[in-house]
Amino acid sequence: MLLDDLYRRVIMDHYKNPRNRGTLDHDVITINLNNPTCGDRITLQMQIEDGVIQSAKFDGEGCSISISSASMMTDAVKGKTVKEALEIADRFSKMMQGELQEFEYEDIEALSGVNKFPARIKCATLAWNAMKKGTTNSTSS
Amino acid sequence: MNAHQIREQFPILKQHVNGHPLVYLDSAATSQKPSSVIQAVTDYYEGYNANVHRGVHTLGSKATDAYEGARDKVAQFINAEFSSQIIFTRGATSAINLVASSYGVSVCGPGDEIVLTPMEHHSNLIPWQQLAKKTGATLKYIPLQDDGTIDLKDVEATITDQTKIVAMVYVSNVLGTINPMEQVAEIAHRHGAKLVVDGSQSTPHIAVDVQQLDCDFYALSGHKMCGPTGIGVLYGKKDLLEQMEPIEFGGEMIDHVDLFDSTWKELPWKFEGGTPLIAEAVGLSAAIDFLNDIGMDAIHQHEMQLAHYAMEKMTKMDGIEIYGPKTERSGLITFNLADVHPHDLATVVDAYGIAIRAGHHCCQPLMRWLNVSSTARASFYMYNTEDDVDRLIEGLVKAKEYFSDAIG
Description:
heterodimer; A: alpha+beta; Sufe protein. Chain: A; three-stranded antiparallel sheet; B: alpha/beta; Aspartate Aminotransferase, domain 1; Aspartate Aminotransferase, domain 2; 2 domains; globular
């Protein structure tokens, strides 16, 4: 059924056991974002050195889609340059719009089903928007 | 009343959603429209669409009669003394903003107080925040009891002689609390304050008598009471409305215009700048006829029975938390189900054709008071039946199973 397209096992696994949940204690970039239509909120912290995202952690409240997406996003961008991370975010955004079915990260590809649930796309993109905002801040400063 | 017969009059309810017959449980967000309302709007556009209060042609007269007839209808429906106390607005939000921007600005200054409750919808919260910032007045909140009601002792303690405005929701869109407006009005008036009532969730569901409430202003929303979107009403006491300045200027609201100065029409038209909401008012008028035919007391009773039926079943579910008072409440149930986030819950039951609301319901401060980020809400109206409640309960059970399976 359609619901199984949305709630794939790997998504539930990230929801139940989110990777990189918590806070960083060293000098980091902190971004707080919320989804004003539903009340979900995320705090994303990233340590960026020489244009490379050394570590990323998140905390917040949200549904299975927003938490799992934050978990997957932080996993994917760790160790990547800001440029690479933004390219991944760009492809993620295309996948959400249904323009891209395959993704280089298997876990993240599981979120492709969200595209069929327009009301939930904002849940999936919250963490990615936080990352984009944080990296933009880091390059401009 | 027979809900099964009534729902036949709502074309939208006959459809299937995601392969299941639609169960619509989001009427607190917006109600569905009966055929008579849809037909009234169509009749207007097909038969006598014309601008009002100008021109001498036949269609213009018909449109003016219908528009002013709708005003009379609203006045009778909430028992206003005069039709001129009924101002058509874009919605309840616009109505409250009109009071804040006109009356509020003229009476509030540094040292004055505006009294609210934490259960206000953003529409009856942010206009007052803005007014306080603009005028230097202070916002004060009447605390909530653990069950989501207010205690009149706290109302007494919060309202003082410095209070200029008390703004309060009659029926909470989250908790279902029905606030004791008459008593609040009495306390406010004893201190020389004016009472603004947000009637968005009361007008569609219970008989309202603004003279008995003795409120100074009352805002209502048309689309939540079977009417079209885009129309609301501000009722006000005549002397207050007369002393208030318009906040929108242009055609329709003027008496005499010179190059350097102008004068306004009398009530209610001085507040209705521009071509008004004619089709919407005609639709609202038909909605009031529809509600009157069933009877507000019958509607309220039916919703109470449904809420009671749902409450009995829901309280038996494992891991459910229901917010708000247990008795003396309106026909909506706000809740959370353990281990299932409200968005996930709403998505799962939607797959079974059941429409419920998930989120903060435009009440972020109240969500913080409840110590949750969001909740689910099922809200009932006259077209809902016990079958709808049964389907909801089945849906909730399925969501619970689905998530416990999926999470494992």
